[in-house]
Amino acid sequence: MPTTEVRSDIAGKVWKIEAAVGDSLAAEDTILVLESMKMEIPVAAPVGGRLLEIQVAEDDVVGEGDVVAVLES
Q1: Count of alpha carbons within 13 Å of 58, Cβ hemisphere only?
Q2: Tens digits of pLDDT across the chain (73 residues)
């Protein structure tokens, strides 16, 4: 099955991971929440599918465009 990389739209710190590997997600379901400049920004699944990988951990710092998760769609 095809995979989809989920990328961060902004640079920030991983505040909370809300989904687990193996979860079935619908498009726009929140995978994790980033904190940047005291704002919480959700990172959502761009398509529906099963979460294959989460490539970050809570408190990690990510850059804009970094891959944070992989979905099987």
Answers
A1: 6
A2: 799 999 999 999 999 999 999 999 999 999 999 999 999 999 999 999 999 999 999 999 999 999 999 999 8
Residues 6+ apart with CB under 8 A from 56: 14, 17, 32, 62, 66, 68, 69
Give yes or no for a contact between 9 and 40, defined as CB atoms under 8 angstroms apart. no
For residue 2, the SS3 value is coil
Helix (H, G, I), strand (E, B) or coil at 70: strand
Query: What string of DSSP letters covers 8-60?
Result: -SS-EEEEEE---TT-EE-TT-EEEEEEETTEEEEEE-SS-EEEEEE---TT-
| pLDDT score for 11 | 97
